[in-house]
Design a protein that fits this description.
Layout: H1 7-23, H2 29-36, H3 42-54, E1 58-60, E2 67-69, H4 71-81, H5 89-100, H6 108-123, E3 126-130, E4 139-148, E5 151-158, E6 163-169, H7 176-190, H8 195-201, H9 208-223, E7 229-232, H10 234-238, H11 248-258, H12 260-271, E8 276-279, E9 291-299, E10 305-313, H13 318-338
Antiparallel strand pairs: 1-2, 3-7, 3-10, 4-5, 5-6, 8-9, 9-10
Length: 340
C-alpha cells in the first residue's frame, strides 16, 4: 500500500498525523518545516502535501489552509508508519501491581472494572470491558439476602467468577435465618451444575427451596448469554475538541450505552483474534464516523472471552492505545488463568 509513496512522502504524512494528534489543529507546511527542521523548501513541502491530499491520505478544512489526516491516512499510519512502543516500563509495573492486588478475588466483575479503569488511564479515552461470555459455567454458590417480608435478593456466583442477581418472590414471610437454610438446600442440590442440569434437578426439590429454585434458574438462563460491561474514561473522551460541537457527544454516548457497538465487535473479534483497529466509517455506524475503536479479546479459565475496547476520536494516539489494549488483554488473560 505504501509502495506508491516516496520515502519523503511517507515522512511528511507521518509528521502531519503526529502533529495533528497532539495539537488537534490543521497542519501547514510552515509548521512542519520550522518545528521538525526538514531540509526542504516550503514549496516542496506544499507540493508533497498537495500530492498526499490528491491520493486521499490528507484532506483540508474549509476554515484553514492546513491539512488533516483522512481515514485512509490514519489507516496507512497504523499499518506501516507509526512506532511500536507506547507503554513505559513504569506504567507496566504500576498496572501489574494493581492487578496483583485483586489476584485472590474471583469476582470477574471486579476484574473488569479494574481493567476498564486501567485501560482508560493508559489510553486516555473511554474504555469498555465486558465480563467473559461463551463458556459453559457451573454454579458455585447461591446467597439469599432478605429484602422485605415478600422478597429476597438471590445472588448466584458462577465458577468463572461472574456474579448474577435477581429479586425473588417468596411464598411466605421469611427471616434472613430462614433464607440461609433455603440457600443451603439450594446449594446442596444445584452447586456444580450448569443451567441445563439445574433445570433437570428442579423436580427433586421440596418446600421453600422448590418455590425459589425456578426463579434462580430462570435468572441464570436469562443472564448466561449476556456480559456485564464496565466503563471508564468517558468524560476524558468527551472533553476532547471533536466532541464539543453539534450533537456528536450525545450520539456516541447513546451508542455506547445501548450496547450495539460491543455486540458487533464481539462477532468480529471472535472470528479473528488480535487487536482490531476500526477507524471512522469502517465501523459501519453513522454515529461512530468520527471515532476510532481499538479492541481485543481476553480469555477466562473456562474458555469464555471478554472484550477490552477503547473508543476515542479518530485523532487518537494510536501507538499508545494499541499497545495498551494488547498489553492489558494479555495480562488479564494470563492472570485469570493463573487464578484458576
Amino acid at each position: 500500500m505504501t509502495d506508491e509513496l516516496t520515502v519523503r512522502s511517507k515522512q511528511v504524512l507521518k509528521l502531519v498525523i503526529e502533529e495533528y494528534i497532539v495539537t488537534a489543529k490543521p497542519v501547514g507546511s510552515g509548521v512542519l518545516r520550522e518545528k521538525y527542521r526538514l531540509p526542504v523548501s516550503p514549496a516542496t513541502l506544499r507540493n508533497e502535501m498537495a500530492e498526499l491530499e490528491r491520493r486521499g491520505y490528507l484532506t483540508h478544512l474549509h476554515t484553514s489552509g492546513g491539512r488533516v489526516p483522512s481515514e485512509s491516512g490514519y489507516r496507512l499510519f497504523v499499518e506501516s508508519l507509526m512506532g511500536r512502543g507506547g507503554i513505559s516500563p513504569a506504567d507496566m509495573r504500576r498496572v501489574e501491581h494493581q492487578f496483583h492486588q485483586v489476584e485472590g478475588d474471583m469476582e470477574l466483575d471486579r476484574w473488569a472494572e479494574l481493567a476498564a479503569s486501567v485501560l482508560a488511564q493508559l489510553a486516555r479515552n473511554a474504555a469498555l470491558v465486558t465480563t467473559p461470555r461463551g463458556a459453559v459455567v457451573e454454579l458455585r454458590r447461591i446467597h439469599l439476602i432478605h429484602l422485605n417480608e415478600g422478597t429476597a435478593l438471590a445472588v448466584a456466583v458462577m465458577d468463572d467468577g461472574s456474579a448474577r442477581q435477581a429479586v425473588c418472590i417468596l411464598p411466605y414471610a421469611a427471616s434472613q435465618e430462614e433464607l440461609g437454610s433455603v440457600a443451603t438446600a439450594l446449594n446442596a442440590a444445584l452447586a456444580g451444575l450448569t443451567v441445563v442440569n439445574m433445570a433437570e434437578r428442579l423436580s427433586s426439590l421440596h418446600g421453600p427451596a422448590a418455590d425459589i429454585a425456578p426463579q434462580v434458574v430462570g435468572m441464570l438462563g436469562r443472564d448466561g448469554s449476556r456480559s456485564a460491561v464496565s466503563q471508564s474514561g468517558l468524560l476524558a473522551m468527551l472533553h476532547q475538541p471533536e466532541f464539543q460541537v453539534g450533537d456528536t457527544a450525545r450520539r456516541v454516548v447513546e451508542l455506547l450505552e445501548g450496547g450495539s457497538l460491543l455486540a458487533g465487535l464481539a462477532e468480529r473479534v471472535a472470528a479473528e483474534p488480535g487487536v482490531h483497529v476500526i477507524i471512522g466509517s469502517e465501523n459501519g455506524l453513522v454515529e461512530m464516523s468520527d471515532c476510532t475503536v481499538v479492541t481485543a479479546a481476553y480469555t477466562s479459565q473456562n474458555g469464555g472471552y471478554g472484550l477490552l475496547t477503547v473508543v476515542g476520536p479518530t485523532r487518537m494516539h494510536y501507538e499508545r492505545t494499541i499497545s495498551s489494549v494488547f498489553y492489558v488483554s494479555q495480562l488479564l488473560s494470563r492472570m485469570l488463568h493463573a487464578n484458576d
